[in-house]
Every structure is written in structure tokens, then in C-alpha cells.
Amino acid sequence: MAVILGVLKPLGRLVTVLLRAGRTFAWIAMGLMVLIIMLQVFFRYVLGNALAWPDEGARFLMLWMTALIAPTAYRWGGFVSIDMVKDLLPPRIGAVLGLLLLLVSLIVLVYGFRLGLNHVNSGWLFASSSLKLPLEFLGLGLVRIKLAWMYMSLPVGLFLMILVNIELCLKSIAHLIDPDADLPEDHDRVIVAVE
């Protein structure tokens, strides 16, 4: 049990820091996405001259926002789950079933991460059709953004979810060993009650 807690405490702190940063960037991406969409609406419907880049820019931000907020939702139990079978079982067997489901999820996340890395590698071959960096001040002109930067959101999000999954697995194992164990808590967790 001491080994599990010895790994769980620093892992929990690391995950908390990474997810806080991820939430911050996700909120920034959300705000920028709203501004970009409003800009496109203004140019398209008020000025009658749509810009080429806002749709792809908003999509870029949406992918990163999702990748950076999904691990927090996973950690806080915000994904849809069906607990009916687990709740019908005796608590110990339900906890074992929960751990097995986490382990299956870990396998899926690792496989998805590997696929995401392959997708990023192919993204270095292609550039965005409309997103360009204005690097005239460096004498480079307009440089088209590689699609790999957009695709990178997938492995980054999945890597963060893998860290969360490992933390949840360790907590589940610790709870199976000692149901009354004092496990580290996520002090950032927001509990929303819906009635």
C-alpha cells in the first residue's frame, strides 16, 4: 500500500498541475473560437465578404479545447457511464469490475495514442489551406501552418487521459486493498448537482 501511495501522491500532483494548465488553455481557446466565429459572421453578413481562415481557425481551436478539457472531465467522472450493473453487485465485486473497466479503457487509450502519433506524422506533409503565420518581420512572408499542429491535439489529449486513467487505477487498487485508505483528493474538482 505504501508503494501505491508513494506513486499516487506525486502522480496526483502532476496530473492536477497539467489539468489546471489544460483547463486554462481550453478556456482561452474557447474565447478565441467565439471571437473568430463572431468576426466571420460580421465579415460575411455585414460586410458581405467572408474571410478564408476563420472556419479552419475555429476548428483548430475546437480540437485543442476538447483535447485539453476531456482529461479533466474523465478525472471528475464527467463522461457518460452506466453504473447499474456495478451498483447491483456487492461493493467488493463492483470495485473489481470498475478496475477491470479502467484497465480496458487504458488499453484503448494507449492504442488511440499510438494511432494519434501516426496521424501527427502524416500531418507534417500537409499544410493548412487557409491558416498562415505572418512572419514578414523575419523575411519569411506568410508561412502556412502544418496540419500536424492541429492533429497533435489528439495524442496530447489521450496522453493526459492515460495519466488520469493510471491515477484512477491506482486509487481503485488502493481502495480494494484498504477501503478506508486516505487517498489524495483532487481539490480542483467541481461537483455539480443536477436534480
Write down how many β-strands occur, each being a DSSP E stretch of 2 or more residues. 2
Q: Specify the number of helices.
A: 6
Low-confidence stretches: none
Indicate the mean pLDDT. 89
Terminal CA distance reads: 38 Å
Q: Sheet bearing the most strands, described?
A: 2 strands, antiparallel
Output the structural class.
mainly alpha
Radius of gyration from the alpha-carbon trace, in angstroms: 21 Å
Strand content is 5-15%
CA-based shape: elongated
Helix content: 55-70%
Question: Could you spell the SSE succession in H and E letters?
Answer: HHHHEEHH
Give, in spatial order, the strands making up the sheet with the most strands. Answer: 1-2
Explain the overall architecture.
By secondary structure, this protein is mostly helical. 69% of the residues lie in helices and 8% in strands. The chain contains six helices and two strands, in the order ααααββαα. The chain has a two-stranded antiparallel sheet. The chain starts with a helix and ends in an 18-residue tail after the last helix.
Output the keywords.
two-stranded antiparallel sheet; single chain; mainly alpha; 195 residues
